[in-house]
Amino acid sequence: MQFSISKTSLIIAAICIPILAQPLNPPSITSTSQLLPNSKKYIPIFAMDGKLKTSWVEGALGEGIGESLQIKYKSPISFRSLSIYNGFGDPKLWAANNRIKKLKISTEDGIEEIVTLKDSLSLQMIEFKSEVRAKEISLTIQEVYKGTSPENTAIAEVFFNSEQAGSALIPPKNTWAIGKWKTKSNIARIQLHNDGTCEMGYETAKMLCTWTEKGDKVIVSLEATLPLTDTDILEIKRRGNPSDPILEINGKHEFISNRDGV
């Protein structure tokens, strides 16, 4: 994926994003198998830890058909949708591993639905016909998109869109950056979320990315090279007045705050 962006047209905005308290209903997560069972590299909790750099990878022979995650909450949750990052979270390893094509979602009360996922690492939201209330939920692999090394199937992140669902991990405290830039034909954006993930691009074509804090900078790792900076790594640093900041990109590109809404 490539973006054609003029250096003079890039406008970045910085705002503070509040970190909300996490609901006290964290899930316990198990799986029917995991890759390298004696290792902690691909454990089931990595599918709900809020980090794309970690993933659950099944460890059965073959493509992982029939392998599942079991998610159990202390008390029931109500939800109408779930969100998922399909496949291995590291963009450099995503194509090598299988991605899920058909996923069966079932509950302890016998509710069952099979959904088709897109072959994309961008965030996908699955909406149900009616509200689901459950304490125990299973996600079972039914069919896969084959990777270049098609022995392993992975889930980077999955979460239920529910006010009663707690997080398996408390997000970092210093989430602060959100931005957009204007081109002649459209508006593109980069948005950093407090779970370590980010999205970049247009509403119809988004590039997934991840970010980490490094001192007073945020390091963004893209899945493609950005023409503006000729790199797939962005170092974003904020300085100046907090109410009217200047953002520094890779130590040389400076952009004033954008007054338009994002």
From TrEMBL:
<feature type="signal peptide">
    <location>
        <begin position="1"/>
        <end position="21"/>
    </location>
</feature>
<keyword id="KW-0732">Signal</keyword>
<protein>
    <submittedName>
        <fullName>Nicotine adenine dinucleotide glycohydrolase</fullName>
    </submittedName>
</protein>
<dbReference type="Pfam" id="PF25302">
    <property type="entry name" value="NADase_transloc"/>
</dbReference>
<feature type="domain" description="NAD glycohydrolase translocation F5/8 type C">
    <location>
        <begin position="28"/>
        <end position="161"/>
    </location>
</feature>
<dbReference type="InterPro" id="IPR057561">
    <property type="entry name" value="NADase_transloc"/>
</dbReference>
